[in-house]
Design goal:
This protein is an alpha/beta fold. It is built from 15 helices and 16 strands.
Length: 560
């Protein structure tokens, strides 16, 4: 046999030996770096401002890096095995490939069947020590798999065990692919969002004519806010001219459905997919229509605005979605955190250092955290003036978990409290109000300060009715008086009418004068932001904070 044929024959033998390891590595990397990100996106589609096309490129790059890296390591192990052991059969390499398969299979079980106790990634600090007890199931799986591996090696031998694990990898690959395709079709994952991407443009611009500002501070409960005011009377001076409505009933326990209710006056009853509902709500908003008729420029400082397709109203601080690309390094860092969170045993998930899915902060756009907003206010004390009327909806982190600020918005590493974060919100609001006063635009500005819902820990609280009483206060154009409290039973279903009266230069008291002192109000309940497709309606006849007295109406709204 000539040298070239001998070389070709050795290459074919080597490739045949290496192929099972390559197939196992391919299936393993497919699960982690293609299946998982696509499944994560599909099942949480509304939590991301981008559509699926933007993640394909960084996802495939990550897959390629890890697959070819794994293939290189396997090839090196094979060559070392052949060179050092001098064995015609690459036994050591095959054992390494078999171990890789069982790591793959254990990860498959962990990430797809042992995830029932995973906490919601809503930004709250996760108590990993409490979760570690769930690893009893992981330990059982590992013992069973180790026993199975030993049994196969004894019964079949190394070569045949590798052959069967290679075929098993192929079967798992097919199963993952089929389930992924089914989920993507079910969630319409490939739909183009045509999202509104908002920037900080015009944040430092106010009109010399009229301004209307809604400052939405996330997760500030009215009862807790009122207690902070009572314990710190100096805070009431911050809100002189404002009327505070402690008996305010929100619309929903979470942000997603509340924003279209506030801005569009639309109540989601799960009659269609949320992105269709919210887009219609904004396009048909009576409030946006009246703002436009009164020559207001609309600015929406909202990091996750779900408004797709054609827009009936122009948003001045929005930018073109098509100009955005996800940076690979930042995207993949967040993706690795999520993969570790899903596929590592519970006792090791802490090393993912994850608290929330932070994919929304990967590009230069509006960022909602309080320290960033506070910095924007403090770093730009002088406002730009315009003769055009301006409307600004500013959604900030507010008192949302985690509780990592003191009252001066300094970072607290641990042991912060909800009350401290409410005080930080007041510090931020005070800076905003003082800037308006210093620039002569306070008197000609309607200011509504509100929350979307109250606060509970989604990972431990079963009853989201606690969130039904968000903080709400406001002042009208040229309104001056001491801080006042109104006992009016306000509902977020009233907001379209209230905002319209504020646009007509009514005071806060005049804007709520038609609301009766006692009446029925309605609240839409669901378990948490992952279970919004099942809504139950409650009637409220007493105070908004007396959630134990809320009664079910019997109306249930499920997304078909």
């Amino acid at each position: 046999m000539d040298a070239s044929k001998q070389h070709s024959s050795k290459f074919k033998i080597a490739l045949k030996d290496l192929l099972p390891g390559y197939i196992i590595a391919f299936a393993f990397c497919f699960m982690l770096f293609i299946f998982e990100p696509l499944l994560m996106y599909s099942t949480n589609k509304l939590d991301f401002w981008f559509d699926i096309l933007l993640i394909l490129s960084p996802m495939m790059i990550g897959f390629a890096i890890f697959f070819f890296g794994s293939a290189l390591i396997l090839t090196a192990a094979y060559l070392i095995n052949k060179a050092i052991v001098k064995d015609k059969e690459p036994t050591v390499y095959r054992i390494i490939a078999i171990v890789l398969f069982f790591l793959f299979f254990a990860s498959y079980i962990q990430g797809n069947f042992l995830v029932g106790k995973l906490p919601a990634l809503d930004g709250s600090v996760i108590d990993w020590d409490k979760l570690a007890k769930n690893d009893i199931f992981t330990l059982i799986v590992l013992v069973v798999l180790c026993g199975l591996a030993v049994f196969l090696l004894i019964k079949l031998g190394v070569k045949n065990t590798l052959k069967y694990t290679m075929w098993a990898s192929g079967v798992l690959f097919v199963m993952l692919t089929v389930s992924l395709v089914a989920e993507m079709i079910s969630y319409d994952a490939f739909s183009h969002k045509d999202s509104i991407i908002t920037t900080n443009k015009n944040f430092d611009t106010m009109s010399t004519d009229k301004n209307f500002v809604i400052f939405l501070t996330d997760a500030v409960g009215s009862s807790e806010f009122g207690k902070v005011l009572e314990q710190n009377p100096e805070y009431k001076e911050v809100f002189e001219d404002f009327t505070y409505y402690p008996d305010t009933l929100g619309g929903y326990p979470c942000t997603r459905d509340t924003i279209p209710l506030i801005l569009g006056g639309a109540l989601n009853k799960n009659e269609e997919d949320f992105e269709k509902f919210s887009s219609k709500a904004y396009n048909n908003s009576p409030f946006f229509k009246k703002l436009t008729e009164n020559d207001y420029d609309i600015n929406l400082y909202e990091s996750e605005l779900i408004w797709y397709g054609d827009k009936n109203f122009n948003v001045s601080n929005s930018t073109d979605y098509e100009n955005y690309r996800l940076p690979f390094k930042s995207f993949f860092r967040e993706e690795i955190k999520y993969i570790m969170f899903r596929y590592l045993p519970y006792n090791f998930k802490r090393y993912s250092q994850i608290e929330s899915m932070d994919f929304n902060g990967l590009v230069d756009k509006y960022i909602w955290d309080d320290r960033t907003i506070y910095g924007l206010i403090k770093d730009n004390p002088t406002l730009e003036k315009t003769s055009d009327r301006t409307f600004s909806f500013i959604h900030t982190e507010g008192a949302h978990i985690p509780f990592h600020y003191d009252k001066d918005l300094n970072i607290i590493e641990e042991n912060g409290t909800y009350e401290q974060k409410i005080e930080a919100v007041i510090t931020m609001l005070n800076a905003y109000i003082e800037r308006l006063k210093a620039n002569g635009t306070y008197d000609n500005t309607v200011i509504v300060i509100m929350a979307d819902h109250g606060n509970t820990d989604l990972n431990s609280a079963d009853d989201m009715l606690v969130r039904a009483n968000p903080m709400f206060m406001m002042k009208g154009i040229e309104e001056h008086h001491e801080f006042s409290v109104s006992e009016k039973p306000l509902s977020y279903l009233d907001l379209t009418d209230v905002f319209g009266k504020l646009l007509d230069d009514k005071t806060a008291e005049e804007s709520t004068a038609d609301i009766p002192d006692k009446r029925e109000r309605f609240f839409m309940w669901y378990r948490n932001f992952r279970l919004e497709d099942h809504i139950e309606e409650y009637v409220v006849e007493d105070k908004a904070w007396e959630w134990q007295k809320f009664k079910k109406t019997g109306n249930v709204y499920d997304l078909k």
